[in-house]
Amino acid sequence: MRKSPSLKSQALEFYVVIPARYASTRLPGKPLLDIAGKPMVVWVAERAKSSGAKEIVVATDDLRIVDEVNQYGHQVMMTRADHVSGTDRIAEVALAQQWSDDAIIVNVQGDEPLIEASLIVEVANTLSNHPESVMATACHAIHSKADFLNPNIVKVVLDAQSNALYFSRAPIPYPRDAFATNSDLPDNMPVYRHIGIYAYRAKFLKQYATIQPSALEQIESLEQLRVLHHGYKISVSISQNAPAAGVDTQEDLDYVRSVMR
Q1: CB neighbours (10 Å) of residue 22?
Q2: Which residues contact residue 217 at a Cβ distance below 8 angstroms, ignoring those fewer than 6 apart?
Q3: Higher model confidence: residue 5 or residue 61?
Q4: DSSP state at residue 4
Q5: What is the pLDDT, as a whole number, of residue 183?
Q6: 131 to 87, 102, 108, 239: CA distances (angstroms)
Q7: pLDDT (tens digit, 9 = 90+) per residue, 127-147?
Q8: Is the pTM of this model over 0.85?
Q9: What is the mean pLDDT of residues 189-197?
Q10: Residue 77: phi, psi to the nearest 5?
Q11: Burial category of 84 from C-beta neighbours within 10 Å (exposed 0-12, middle 13-18, buried 19 and up)
Q12: Residue 229 to residues 49, 236, 237, Cα–Cα distance (Å)
């Protein structure tokens, strides 16, 4: 099992890009929603700064976000409005910034105002320690049967070296015998919830746009399956604790506001 590195022991150089689109179906203007007196995306940038990243760039498609981020003194870049994924948006930033091919870039979502700096460092180190992988991400153990069966919670299955074998919204691996008797999840069953944070090498980001989408990616609505489908490796760090909640709904926003207060 990969251990989470401490912030103090790390001298790894890495970058953070925070994709932040203004449009949101459930929460319009989500990156700019106020949390304890600051826009959400600014909280994310401050969390990323505490990770020790060499450079942090908010990547957006809206001038309102540019103006707000600039006001708080963080670096921000306007990117194309037609990107189909956050990964494509990050690739545009990597090219524009002319980061070297071996640079490690961490994708921190713009709706994660409670993200721990240690998780950002952990994912960057996982990629650094596994040169055979083009990406790294994280997961944590699931112990709840309800979470295991929830299609909104993405599961990941790992190989012996903690590389991802598959990501799915379905309950994987499926405990056939236990569920045949309506039992709970077996003890010590390797069930992991995927945490939506990624680290990439800049060289791979520059290639990403040329990689054809896969049927599995479209069926599951999980873009990381494109990477596995084409034979690339994704290293996965097993975190000991579940990450703080991101903001997808009004209820999530209310919760984060209460925490920040």
Answers
A1: 16
A2: 223, 224, 225, 226, 229
A3: 61
A4: P
A5: 82
A6: 20, 10, 21, 20
A7: 999 999 999 999 999 989 999
A8: yes
A9: 93
A10: -135, 135
A11: exposed
A12: 34, 17, 20
Both tokens of 3, joined, read: 């251990």
The DSSP bridge pattern shows strands 15-20 and 55-60 to be: parallel
Give the start-end residues of each E strand in the chain: 15-20, 34-35, 38-39, 55-60, 75-78, 104-107, 135-141, 155-158, 164-168, 192-201, 234-239
Q: Is residue 95 within 8 Å of residue 5, measured between CB atoms?
A: no
Confidence of residue 66 (pLDDT cuts 50, 70, 90): very high
In DSSP terms, 156 is beta-bridged to 167, 192
Q: How far apart are CA 197 and CA 180, in angstroms?
A: 34
Structure tokens, 217:
């990616």
What stretches of 162-210 adopt beta strand conformation (E)? 164-168, 192-201
What average pLDDT does this structure show over 41-64?
A: 96
> Model confidence at 85, in pLDDT bands (50, 70, 90)?
confident
What pLDDT is stored for residue 171 in this prediction? 96
Tabulate helix, strand, coil % of the chain (nearest 5): 35, 20, 45
The predicted structure's pLDDT at residue 6:
43
| β-strands 155-158, 104-107 pairing | unpaired
Where residue 27 falls (left for φ over 0; alpha for ψ -120 to 50; beta otherwise) is: beta
User: Hey, what are 137's tokens?
Assistant: 């991400």
Tokens of 132: 């055979």
